[in-house]
Amino acid sequence: MLIQTSDEPQGVDLFLPATYDLAWTGAVLALVVALGVAVVLTVRAATRTPEPSLHGLATEDPVRRAARRHATTVSVAAVTAALLVGAVVAQAAATSVGGLAEGVLVGLSPAVVGLTFLGAHAVGERTWPRQRTAVRAATLRPRTVADVAPRGLRRLTWSLGALVGLLAAVGALTAGDDGRSVTRVLGDTTSTASPYPGTFYGVWLALAAVLLVAGAEGVLRLVARRPAVAHVEETWDVGLRRASAHRVLRGVQLALGLTAAGMLGTGANAAARVGYPGAVVLVVVAVGLALTAVVVAVRPAADPDAWADDRAGAPVMAGAGRAAR
After folding, report:
1. How much is the average pLDDT of 163-176?
2. Strand ranges, E, within the chain
3. Which 3-state string (H, E, C) describes 227-277?
4. What mean pLDDT value characterizes the chain?
5. Over 90: is that where the pLDDT of 147 sits?
6. 128 with 69: CB under 8 angstroms?
7. In Å, how far from its chain's centre is CA 304?
8. pLDDT for residue 58 is more than 60
9. Who contacts 21 (Cβ-Cβ below 8 Å, separation ≥6)?
């Protein structure tokens, strides 16, 4: 019986990059894209001219301006912390960590960056300025995550987390006994390729996905329960919360999307190297998934003024008014 290993490309592998190069290039591209997105968003925020609002110009209202400034500071701090941690992880993968641990670290890098992003947002929400006026306003009905989180973006985040878990389960069922390779037997020829997202990698990646989704839900609850902005309409305050929730979710879905794309691309690469037909198509799917996550991440949140204007004429739900205390 002829046994082939995956140390050198064979057959269809000649048309694919080496697994290490593919993973490393993906990590570097993710970092470069994140830096580019940060620059674009910063320039856009600095040069944007606000639209007039039916509720008044927010740029002329010191209360709204202060609230916007705090929300922007939290977002910028979270992105900065994530980029710094991403740079540290990339440096560690390149110089300090070797062997099988290097592959685990590369696979976990989007999740590590995403958890740092969430941690910075959590600190920002916990330090949100409280009302210092003699008369404080509060809603009669407690806000929930469903009130402040964009529904579609929240569902996308959960779906990507579930996709990572599904890919980890499929990898565990199809991997070899070592949990990090895939084998195909065709006649008298046995071909084995690695790395492959079996249990050796998949358990860590699935755990990271659970932590990301749970962490996102926790931060969203902080957004929903943070102190209300004084002397502004409730709809504007909700609009500002939805903008914060949007920023949290788009960062988490990016980390989950890149994790899922990396698992799919690495697994498809290994499968193609042992000769499974159609595996190359999954590499294209993985690239499309990563690009989609990036596109969603750069989509701006709805402006609180626009959100308030759109709902200015909407009927108020029973018990959803404000009470002074």
Report:
1. 92
2. 2-4, 137-139, 182-186, 189-193, 322-324
3. CCCCCCCHHHHHHHHHHHHHHHHHHHHHHHHHHHHHHHHHHHHHHHHCCCC
4. 78
5. no
6. no
7. 22
8. no
9. none
Residue holding tokens 């102190």?
A: 227
> Which amino acid would we find at residue 62?
P
Q: Are residues 241 and 125 in contact, defined by beta-carbon separation less than 8 angstroms? A: no
Residue 240's nearest CA partner among 68, 82, 97 is 68
pLDDT tens digits for range 264-301: 999 888 888 888 888 888 888 999 999 999 999 998 88
Of 108, 93, 79, 157, the C-alpha closest to 259 is: 108
Separation between Cα atoms, residue 207 and residue 220, nearest integer Å: 20
- At 45 the pLDDT is 52
- 3-state DSSP assignment of residue 325: coil
Show the CA angle centred on residue 38, arms to residues 229 and 162, nearest 5°.
Answer: 80
Q: Using the structure block, give the residue that is written with the tokens 């609009």.
A: 239
The pLDDT tens digits of the residues spanning 87-139 come to: 888 888 888 777 788 888 888 999 999 999 999 999 999 988 876 554 445 55
CA–CA gap between residue 203 and residue 185 (Å, rounded) = 26
